[in-house]
Design goal:
Elements: H1 4-10, H2 13-36, H3 41-46
């Protein structure tokens, strides 16, 4: 049976960087939809 420590030892620094990049991108998209889009709704509603 494979242990959790064995899985972690196989992960490389590039794997960590990829995960951090994905989480950061998701965080950016979340802020985009929450903070930038609602002020635009006033302009869209006028059309």
């Amino acid at each position: 049976m494979l242990q959790a420590t064995d899985l972690r030892s196989r992960a490389t620094r590039s794997d960590d960087a990829r995960i951090i990049g994905l989480v950061s991108a998701a965080h950016f998209v979340s802020h985009y939809y929450i903070l930038l889009l609602p002020p635009l709704f006033a302009f869209i509603r006028a059309d």
